Amino acid sequence: MNPITHLLEIDRLQTVFWNGREEVAAIEDVSFSLRAGETIGIVGESGCGKSVTSLSIMRLLGQNGRIRRGEIRFNSRNLVAESEKELRSLRGKEIAMIFQEPMTSLNPVLTIGHQLVEMIRCHTSLSRREAKAYAMEMLKKVGLPQAKDLMSVYPHTLSGGMRQRIMIAMALSCKPRLLIADEPTTALDVTIQAQILELMKSLRKESGAAIMLITHDLGVVAEMADRVVVMYAGQIVEEADVFTLFREPKHPYTQGLMASIPRVQGENERLRAIPGTVPSIRKMPKGCRFHTRCEWAAERCRQEQPQLESVGGEHQVRCWIVQEQASPLPVSANFQHQEAGV
Amino acid sequence: MFIDPNTPVEMLEMRKELLGLNDPVILQYFKWLLNLLQGQLGYSFSSYAPVTTIIGERLGPTLLLASASLIFGLLIAIPVGILSAVKQNTKFDYIMTGLSFIGTSIPQFFLGLGLIYICAVQFKLFPTGGMMTLGGPGDFWDRLRHMVLPVFVLGIVIAGKKVRYVRAGMLDVLKMDYLRTANSKGLHPFHVINKHALRNALIPIITVVAMEIPLLLGGSILIEQIFQWPGIGQLTIQSILSRDYPILMGLNLVAALIVLSTNLLTDLLYAAADPRIQYT
Ligand SMILES: Nc1ncnc2c1ncn2[C@@H]1O[C@H](COP(=O)(O)OP(=O)(O)OP(=O)(O)O)[C@@H](O)[C@H]1O
Ligand SMILES: [Mg+2]
Question: Which CATH number do you get for residue B73?
Fold first, then answer.
């Protein structure tokens, strides 16, 4: 838990959106951290706040969104307090992002070359020609050998997989220390998905960038991540390293997610979906946010909101049932948490 | 045609026969078409000059006025529309939306006459009309001074209408994923707006602007009359009043050509602005 080794630390982040009448919190009390070179997976159902978390880090929340509480420390700098200009110099250079929709993430009226070169030239002192050569090199690196022709091509002529490769080439071109990938493979078909994941793995090895991988596909997480954060309704409900999470998921929601993965060896066992729907961010239930869909919900779950607590080592769960059942916490971990004010 | 009631009937008949006015209308039209194929539009009933010469003289001033007004209008509409969209729901946005509403709803003749009264009559800043000072030097600055008021009147209305299209187009584009990408690259917001957003926002605006061109020519009828601008609009009024059919036919032809060529221009501009469109 030495802060120096952490590249990114998010501390009790709350991000709100103005909906015309009031500010509603899209994410609340989100804390996690990421070491250099580490890959963290963020999973959860649609609308649970995964994208808002990542856009908060980039401070790209648009006009009606803002960070109301909490800190985002990147390299020990609090990004929440930085000026817009400072942030701009980080975006793309230190923290880069790839998005879910490769079909719409590239500008349709600018050539691939232009879109790559402008980014490279924005953060380096390369000349136009050097930047162009470098861009072609990047394209080759992401498995697009026809780089020279691609430079003068417009995005609409390319397939989704090729565009996502270009997005990756662009994101990695300034050697960022953190790559945020917001569902990078969701929009692609399965074979292309596998190729892109393979590519990300090999590039990760080469560049040593930390990756924040957002997905709702636990298979992708198992494949890629070192650690996993499970989000539900704007909060983190469980965090653990990937082996622990898959071996013994504690939170009823995580267990539900696991049960809903189709398994090849699963015999004739029926796929189990979690009953009910995610509560709306405007009408969060009292107590534990998951209690409306939880089969274990007790009286306390309906009344009091649980906190994210360690149940051993770095495995943290936000659930009364789990916390009450858990063997008494090791003193040191317990103490640390109280000190941190969680 | 206005005819002196004392003209002898035989002479009138002879004249009618000569002008071909006794032929059936269809035949007259085909004769006109046949002449057209040879580049002939006939002769004015009132001045006996060739229609092509008369229209040719008037076309230049009208095109000058129309294009200057269009450029002036767009030079206001595009930046104001962009800023309004970028600063959506701020005071600037509200004021500009309000002004554009006034700009669109104010009648042109009223604005024109008002400006003549204030700027030309009261303060003598600009001439009241015409294209250049009669007997004056007729140099660039003189012509410019004569253009200011009519261009302003026509342009302000265009600006008022187009601001709303630019703003709406920009607001649509600002929501796009590729703009989020551009921002995530750390580009300067000025670059993001002008390079990434504007080009996309302008594509739908091309049509709206092209549709404006025929309207602009229609609008210039009024403005040319008010400002004594020696263009097509003024000629149209004069020809209608004097029932100068050859000229009117010629003017209709010119109007049709202008509409067709703006349509062609629109399609070409589309292809130039949007790489997804290709004509083969
Ligand atoms: N610009 C915005 N304005 C208002 N509300 C927003 C905005 N962006 C996100 N939200 C709200 O924040 C909540 C979380 O959205 P978010 O996009 O983070 O979900 P997600 O976990 O990324 O889902 P998905 O898997 O569908 O991408 C949603 O309820 C959404 O309505
Ligand atoms: Mg999302």
Answer: 1.10.3720.10
For the stretch A207-237, pLDDT in tens is 888 999 999 888 889 989 999 999 999 999 9
The tokens of B186 are what? 């750390």
Give the ipTM: 0.85
Closest Cα of chain A to B256: distance in Å?
33
Q: Which of A96, A109, A156 sits opposite B199 (nearest CB)?
A: A109
Min CA distance, B183 vs chain A (Å)? 8
**Using CA atoms, how far apart are residues B262 and B209, in angstroms rounded to an integer?**
10
Interface test with A, best of B184, B191, B206 (most A CBs within 10 A): B184
Amino acid symbol at B272: A
| Domains of chain A, each with CATH number or no CATH | 8-225 (3.40.50.300), 230-262+274-340 (no CATH)
Helix (H, G, I), strand (E, B) or coil at A137: helix
CB-CB contact of A120 with B208 (8 Å): no
Q: Print burial letters for A79-98: b (CB count within 10 Å at least 16), e (below 16).
A: bbebeeeebbebbbbbbbbb
Looking at the CA of A23, which ligand is closest?
1
Chain B residues whose CB is inside 8 A of the A107 CB are 178, 181-182, 196, 200
Global pTM value: 0.82
